[in-house]
Structure formats: structure tokens, C-alpha cells
Amino acid sequence: MKQQKDISRGYSHEIIMPNDDIPFKMFLFEGKDGNYIREKHWHRSVEIFALFEGELEFYVNEVRYPLKPGEFMLVNSNEIHSIFSPRENQTVVLQIPLTTFEKYYTDEKFIYFSHSSRLQDEEVMHLIREMYRTYVEKPCGYELKVQSQFYMLVYILVTKYRKTDVNEEVIRNNRKLDRLSVITAYMKEHYREDISLESLAENFGYSPTYLSRMFQKYAKTNYKIYLDNIRLEHAVKELMNTRMPIGEIAYGNGFPNSRAFAKVFQRRYGMLPSEYRKMMIG
Q: Could you give the CA distance from residue 121 to residue 147 in angstroms, rounded to a whole number?
């Protein structure tokens, strides 16, 4: 499999920030090698994808946002999004804890940023490029320099991109997704187990019908697809990084058998797991 060099100085490994040196995470996008789809998901952190080379396609709340080099995508807390990476790309991802913005909430634990391009795009991209380069090279005092650039980025987001006139429907969806996050966190922890809609609903005090409606209305997907996607993400990593038999990978990640795994895999990648493994690692 061809490796993608990053934007700093020819480094080819993925850099992920440890939690103890700066107050956010920064890393190369896991879909940097292309042929990658990240299905619908959401999280509480604010996320920025800064594209330096290649192309990416985002869907945020069902709206398509194609990204070209020099542009970034800002994904708000609890915003449903998916990502398509058709080819190799150089993308730096920042994950910023929501609490970073707590002094600027427009509602209880709520802040919303615009997706529209602004004149500040170039400045944002420059800051992210420099932050990443500084972190990779680690000169003396690098943490201080990266954090100073980070807070300048936060300043631009708060003063130039924050929206204060957000409609009530967006705020209501945010609250519902907060509730669903507790449930999906449980699913991410227990994905290897047999999790039925009925058992999940009973666990959290909902009726199966109501829980199903919550997924459809607020997560824009259904419970089964969401669960299959969690299992698939873990299974694909084992498919790429081990020589384990495909049936064993399927069963070990919560699929009832290799046929069920192949069906979900083919729906996302358009080929069988065996074909994908052969194409990617030989």
C-alpha cells in the first residue's frame, strides 16, 4: 500500500497528539490513502479538516460540501457528518474539546460555527499548517508556539465564524444527539456482543419504537446501520493489519458470520473483504 507523505517535511507516519502536551488533538486524516468512506457519525468535539492536497467530500446534515486544496471543513459539535476520500490527500485534522468555547456559548453548552467560506480561510489554513509543522519538528518551546497558534485559531473561529442566530430546531437536535451519544458510547464499547434494538432500548429506559425513531430523526440513520458501521471500522483495521482469517475477523467484531460481514463490507467498499485485502496489502 502506498504511503502518503505529510505536509511538514516528508514524514510518512500519522502524527497523533498525546493528551498531555496540548489541549486538543491534531493528526493526519486516516483516509489519507484514498478509497475511504466514513459513514454518518457525530461527536461532541468541534472538528476541523484542513485539506492541503487532493480532494475530500463532506456531507453535513445531508448537505454536500466538496473540498479543494486550501479549504477547510468545520464540523460543529453533534453535527451529523460523513466523509468520502476518493484519492490520496494531505489533510490535517483538529479535534477541539467543546469546553474550549464555554465562555462563548449562545445556549446551554451550545455554540455553532458557519460552514461558509470567509476571507479568513487563508489565515486559518496557514495557522494549521504551522501548528502541524511545529509539532512534528518539536523545536525548543514547541508546546508554547503551538498553543499560541491554537488560541489565535480559536479567536478567529469565535469572532469570524460563530453564529448567534441559530434556529431552535438546530438547538433541539443538538440536545437529542447529546442523549443519543450516551447510547452510542455503549454501542462502541459493546459492539462485539449481540446488541438488539430491544435490549438496547430496555437498557436505557426507552421503547424500541421510540429509540428507533430517535436514530432515524436525529442521527439520520437507523440503529442497525450505525452498529454495523462501528463493527466494520474495527474489522477493516484487522483486515489490513493482520493475517487473521476473514471469518474470524467477522465473528470477533460482532458479525454473526463472514457472509454478514461481506454484505456490509461490499455495501461500503464495492468489493469483497478478500478482494480489498489483496488490493491493499497483496
A: 19
Q: What residues form DSSP beta bridges with 90? A: 53
Query: What's the pLDDT tens digit per position in 185-206?
Result: 999 999 999 999 999 999 999 9
pLDDT digits (tens, 9 = 90+) for 117-136: 777 789 999 999 999 999 99
Q: How far apart are CA 228 and CA 218, in angstroms?
A: 18
Query: Domains of the chain: which residue ranges?
Result: 25-163, 169-281
| Pairing mode of beta strands 25-28, 81-85 | unpaired
Cell of 29: 486524516
Q: 240 or 46: whose pLDDT is higher?
A: 46
b/e map 124-151, b = 16+ CB within 10 Å: bbebbbebbbbbbeeeeebeeebeebbe
As separate numbers, helices (DSSP H) first and strands (DSSP E) second, the chain gives 9, 10
- pTM of the predicted structure, to 2 decimals: 0.79
Type of residue numbered 30: E
CATH, domain 169-281, list 3.30.390.10, 3.30.499.10, 1.10.10.60, 3.30.390.60? 1.10.10.60
Torsion of the alpha carbons at 8, 14, 16 and 21, rounded to the nearest 10:
-40
- Give me the count of residues in the chain: 282
One of 2.40.30.10, 3.10.580.10, 2.60.120.10, 3.40.190.10 is the CATH number of 25-163, namely 2.60.120.10
Grid cell for residue 200: 438496547
| 109: alpha, beta or left? (left if phi > 0; alpha if psi -120 to 50) | left
Residues 6+ apart with CB under 8 A from 200: 183, 186, 187, 211, 223
